[in-house]
Design brief:
The complex is a heterodimer of chains A (117) and B (117). Chain A is globular. Chain A contains no helices and eleven strands. In chain A, the strands form two sheets. In chain A, strands 2, 4, 5, 6, 9, 10 and 11 form a seven-stranded mixed beta sheet that branches. A four-stranded antiparallel beta sheet of chain A has the order 1-3-8-7, with no helix packed on it. In chain A, β4 and β5 form a beta hairpin. By secondary structure, chain A is mainly β. In chain B, the strands form three sheets. In chain B, strands 2, 5, 6, 10, 11 and 12 form a six-stranded mixed beta sheet that branches. A four-stranded antiparallel beta sheet of chain B has the order 3-9-8-7, with no helix packed on it. Chain B starts with a strand and ends with a strand. The chains are: A mainly beta (117), B mainly beta (117). At the A-B interface, β5, β9 and β10 of A face β5, β6, β10 and β11 of B.
Chain lengths: 117, 117
C-alpha cells in the first residue's frame, strides 16, 4: 500500500513570494490534515478536510494561507505572500473514517521543508 | 482546551536498557485518545502506540508500552531493550474528544532520545 505522498520535499523562497504544496493521501482515506511543524516544536494543525469539506480550519492564517481538496482526494496548500515565520515543515496526514469509534491512526507524509529568506 | 506537556527535551539511554519518556495531558473530555509518534531525522512521523481513555489495560506494541495513569493524567511511553535505531524525536499527542468529526491531534513539544552504544 502506497503511503501519503507530498511534493516538493524542499522549497526555498523569498519573503512575499507565493508557494504551493501538494499532498496525495492513502487511497480510501476520507480525512486529510495539514500540519505545520516549526523547528523544535510539535506539529500544529492548520486544516482538516473530510472528503472535500473543511472540518476545522480554526488555526489557519486565512489572510495568507489557503487550502483545497476539490475532488476529495489530493490537496493543495498555498501561502501567499510568505513571511519569514512561515519557515517550517508542512506535514500532510490522512486517516480512514470508520463507522465506529476506534483508533483513528493518522498516517503522515514525509513533509515539505519550507525556508523563507 | 487540550494540552500535552513533555518536560524532557532530551534523554540519553544505553543500548539494551529500558527508557521512559514522560507525557502529561490536560482535557476536560471523558472520551479521548493518546498517541505516541516517532520522528527520525528523515522527518516522517511514525505511529507507535495508542491508548483510549476507556481502555482498562495499558497498551503494548512489541517493545513499546504505554503507562497510562488516568488520575494523574499521564501517558508515559516505555521503550524496552533500546536499540540504536530508536534514536529520534518522540511526540506524545492527544485527540479529544473522540466522538466528534474533529480528528486532528494536539502534539507535545517532543523529547529527543539518543541511544548510546
Amino acid at each position: 500500500e502506497a503511503g501519503v505522498a507530498q511534493s516538493p520535499r524542499y522549497k526555498i523562497i523569498e519573503k512575499r513570494q507565493s508557494v504551493a504544496f501538494w499532498c496525495n493521501p492513502i487511497s480510501g482515506h476520507a480525512t486529510l490534515y495539514w500540519y505545520q511543524q516549526i523547528l523544535g516544536q510539535g506539529p500544529k494543525l492548520l486544516i482538516q478536510f473530510q472528503n472535500n469539506g473543511v472540518v476545522d480550519d480554526s488555526q489557519l492564517p486565512k489572510d495568507r494561507f489557503s487550502a483545497e481538496r476539490l475532488k476529495g482526494v489530493d490537496s493543495t496548500l498555498k501561502i501567499q505572500p510568505a513571511k519569514l515565520e512561515d519557515s517550517a515543515v508542512y506535514l500532510c496526514a490522512s486517516s480512514y473514517f470508520p463507522l465506529l469509534v476506534g483508533t483513528y491512526e493518522q498516517y503522515f507524509g514525509p513533509g515539505t521543508r519550507l525556508t523563507v529568506t | 482546551a487540550q494540552k500535552i506537556t513533555q518536560t524532557q527535551p532530551g534523554m540519553f539511554v544505553q543500548e539494551k536498557e529500558a527508557v521512559t519518556l514522560d507525557c502529561t495531558y490536560d482535557t476536560s473530555d471523558q472520551s479521548y485518545g493518546l498517541f505516541w509518534y516517532k520522528q527520525p531525522s528523515s522527518g516522517e512521523m511514525i505511529f507507535l502506540i495508542y491508548q483510549g481513555s476507556y481502555d482498562e489495560q495499558n497498551a503494548t506494541e512489541g517493545r513499546y508500552s504505554l503507562n497510562f495513569q488516568k488520575a494523574r493524567k499521564s501517558a508515559n511511553l516505555v521503550i524496552s531493550a533500546s536499540q540504536l535505531g530508536d534514536s529520534a524525536m518522540y511526540f506524545c499527542a492527544m485527540r479529544s474528544p473522540l466522538d466528534t468529526g474533529r480528528r486532528a491531534l494536539t502534539f507535545g513539544s517532543g523529547t529527543r532520545l539518543q541511544v548510546q552504544p
